[in-house]
Write a structure and sequence with these properties.
By secondary structure, the protein is mostly helical. The protein has helices spanning 3-20, 37-46, 58-71, 75-89.
């Protein structure tokens, strides 16, 4: 790369860093730190969680979302609970 191109890319990098940290967190918005995907994957593995993708009908997904909202629990927790109950019934 030429010297001018290096200076330009360095300037862009500095601009990105400044734009990300330009606004201070207000009213507790910065209280919950965003975890990147790699850290989240590590945390999930430590808890013994495994990604499990399935395809469901849209109506069923809407029912799951409304039930999770009604109970005030995350969708993953609701789905795990329903699967456990279903497997015990057999």
């Amino acid at each position: 790369m030429k010297r001018a191109e290096l200076a330009k890319s360095k300037g862009k990098k500095i601009d990105r860093q400044m734009s990300q940290s330009a606004t201070p967190s207000r009213f507790g918005q910065g209280a919950s730190a965003v975890v990147d995907r790699r850290e989240q994957r590590t945390r999930d593995q430590a808890l013994g969680l495994v990604a499990f993708a399935i395809k469901l009908e849209g109506d069923l997904v809407k029912q799951l979302h409304s039930l999770a909202q009604e109970r005030g629990i995350p969708l993953n927790e609701l789905t795990a609970d329903l699967l456990r109950k279903g497997l015990k019934a057999k």
